[in-house]
Amino acid sequence: MITRIRGYALPDGEYADLYADGDRWTTDPVPGATLVAEGWLVPGLVDAHTHPGAAAPGQPMDAGLLREQLHQHVDAGVTLIRSPGLPGEPPAWFGEDPDVPRARHAGPWLAQHGQFFDGWGRRADHGELPALAAAQAARTGWAKIIADWRVGDAAVPVDVLRAVVREVHAAGGRVAVHSQHPEGGAAAVAAGVDSLEHGMCLDPGLLARMAEQGTALTPTLSVITGSLRRRENEPDSPARTWYLSGARVHGALTAAAAEAGVRVLAGTDSLPHGGIVAEIRALAAAGVKPHDALAAASWSAREYLGLRGLEPGAPADAVVYDRDPREDLAQLADPAAVVLRGRCVRRRGWVAGPGS
């Protein structure tokens, strides 16, 4: 079936009549095209921080579970994911099969000795990290560094992160850094990393520099604030104090980042997969404008990851809603249709089969 959609295309809201010519949009009529939906057209959604393929941290890659979790993403309208860290080497079909999202990934995580989940990633000496990260980025396009971990752990020094950034950029890749402590976040920003993942406890005074140098923030807001109730009920400890102090202001930090001009990316980092709508709504509830909250999970994230939106020649991904989702974010949970690589893979009351 040749897909056709029409309606008001975001971000500008201009009327568009789009046909899928293979995996590219065109405004030229394609004979035999079927109008699958009309309304408000959104470039396919993006989850910029997700780790599919394992049932729990530290467990190995499970190809069957990976496909199941990727289908959960598609059900939510996600047509592109970024996995800054995978539980193992993905199968050849990852990001390529017509019924799973496109993918960008960093392969396994890189961490200091004694940090991160046992069984995941690779732990290395500081002197090894730049070359390991460059090799990874040359292969996948991204490298992921765990800059800090538990309360009391030392963060990766800024000179090491600077060397990582220099070597990865020389290899043509980009660097994502996990940080949930002030020292790690400060080192990551000073090193000029490409994206800061989580960013909890980040000094708000660093936001202007992030905006100036193009460091994106993926706050994973819904999972961080969603754990507040559980952490509040835990016995007092340094870890509890740290978590509550950062998580309680994480929404305000995220809104301030968006206001400062930092590119905010929507990422879920949680089970079950397919929770991008909850992340968009969490961004808006924190004070990010609804237009910008949706951009963080659509056109802005796609641009950051190298894909264009709803225009001729762009990859044929879209989600269609009955009404403007910016005016009513509840719309996001009930798309009229999801188009992935030019195929209508989901339509209200219908799911595509092989070859549809």
Automatic annotation (TrEMBL):
Pfam family, one: Amidohydro_1
Domain Amidohydrolase-related: 153-343
Domain of life: Bacteria
SUPFAM superfamilies for the chain: Metallo-dependent hydrolases (SSF51556)
InterPro entries associated with the record: Amidohydro-rel (IPR006680), Metal-dep_hydrolase_composite (IPR011059), Metal_Hydrolase (IPR032466), Metallo-dep_Hydrolase (IPR051781)
PANTHER family in the record: ALPHA-D-RIBOSE 1-METHYLPHOSPHONATE 5-TRIPHOSPHATE DIPHOSPHATASE (PTHR43135), AMIDOHYDROLASE-RELATED DOMAIN-CONTAINING PROTEIN (PTHR43135:SF4)
Protein's UniProt name: Amidohydrolase family protein
